[in-house]
Amino acid sequence: MTPLSDRVVILGLLATVALVFALVFWTVRLHPNGGQPPLLWRDGGQPARSGSPLI
What we know:
mainly alpha; 0% strand; rod-shaped
């Protein structure tokens, strides 16, 4: 079995890096906050009122 040429190895590495970058970019664009709901104190929303005191 003959070893791969340098050009094939470099192209394979570049393709792998491009694929990983594309997957990370695509995931971040779809879920910019990791899929978790935003915290109320960060986006200025009002907390839900339950009618009972906290303490």
